[in-house]
Amino acid sequence: MKKLILGLLIAGVTFSAAADPVKGQKYYLKYMRPLFNYNGQVFAQQHLQLEWQLYFNNDAKKFIEEFSKKHPESEKFLTSKKFQKIAPHLKDFAVKYAADSGELPNCS
Amino acid sequence: MKLKLTAITASLVLALSMPAFADQAQDIANLKEQIRELQKKVGGSNLKFSADYRVTMDSIDYEMADGSDRSNDSLLSNRLEIGIGYQPFDNLVFKGLLSYNKAFGETTTNPMNPGMGEFDWVINENLGDNGLNVKEAYILYLGDNFLGSELDWTASIGRRPSTGGFLANNRNGYDEAKSPLGHSIDVEFDGLSVVVKLDELTGISGMDAKLCTGRGLSADATPRFSSNGTDYVEYDDGLDNIDMVGLIVTPYNNGQYNIKSQYYYATNLIDMGYSATGMPTGFEQLGDLENLTISMQVNGVGEFINDFLDDTVLFVSGSASKTSPDGKMSSGGNYGMLGSDDDEKGYSYWLGATFPAFTEGDRFGIEFNHGSKYWRSFTYGEDTMIGSKIAARGDAYEAYYNLPIIGDSLYFQLRYTHIEYDYSGSNGFFGNSGAPMTIKQANAAGYGSMVVESAQDLRAMIRYNY
Question: Considering only CB atoms, which chain A residues are within 8 Å of B311?
Fold first, then answer.
């Protein structure tokens, strides 16, 4: 078992994960939803695709500024290293479901 | 394009006709808002189309109970699904999906007798003719104050998405699952559903409850323009409605850990009746079926240990079915469900994992499922050429490799499925065609050439998705 875990850890070094809207959705639900108190659709629809792109430029500087003001309780997380790890995925999720994305809600 | 020009012109006229503001910053803010609204109109709320087209080559092989072998080395097929959608208001959506699924070229075998392939539950999952069929068409309403509370809710009615459900989406190569739990339901369905989001009420992440009802078969009725003017009246001695009611509860979903449970009860289930001389006499109704399924998916192992574990998905699911025969004797002396007069319980479990492979975006997947003697699922529409692997009363093994080639639009899959049956009747209906016999019993009864002992399918698929 130890060898298997070690193998997985070593294997992990060789993979580099691309930004992914599905992962962004997962991270939104896990980390952002409890802080913002609205669902991912409401979140993504707040801005246009281009706006989200700009918000996440420069290590998501504008995003951190705006959402720290909107939700002060989220500031600690938004300025953490963990947020920087999920930010690329969150950006892809926000862009995919932005107000002008044309994505329609599903029957889920 | 016309819409775009009209909207842009209107926007400019509106902007020019506005009174000049002393504050230029205010002017800019107003113009920005107008452009924003325009962007939303252009990109957001007009008619949407999507296309999902794929070509598959399946090499399939069956080993029968008597040791004989049957195969098709290169079954080539293509499937097209055209999605349409429109959201005229924020809280109202229409969606549709038109589908075509056909083997390459002309099919000359039994052109007038497609068997059960044209049954409504599976018509778009089996190889048919060149026509487009409606796979989905439904209205979705999005509400935000369920029964006066502040709970978000949705309601939908129509031919709803009910194939490729939770967990089944992994092997089908889709990131997102459709509605039901793939362990027990994977067929097309007409009905309605209401979902109430309970997370805000309970404080439990992702919690919701969904009530589903629907009709799997409409009772036999007189045709339109009946001679006595009684159109669409139910026949006294015809088939009754097959109705189903189900409840899907998500007790917890935080994005990483997603747990779902599903209970359903279906009435008046059918199988083919036969006369004493063995001639088919049409469908007969035999009794009811209920099922309870609990599935869990872990999307990422641990938390930021490394990219491999972050991208690994593990899942486990358990399901139990129970028949309730109505005790009526059929014309040919057949009775009971799954070949038994008694209530019969069956169970199944299903394990799987998908994980990153060699490059960005490609993934391996492995799955295993086992079903017991009287296990009966509603998975006739599962996307497997050799019959539903989830329905197997025995063991099913599967491995696949999913490779995105060009962005999210062009995608390749190689998949191998192997099923070892312990009992016959796995993909049968709810009466005698679903009766379980061991391989030994089948041979002893002289059915060895009619019962599959093992089946395998090696599939290569290329899919375009927009």
Answer: 15, 17, 23
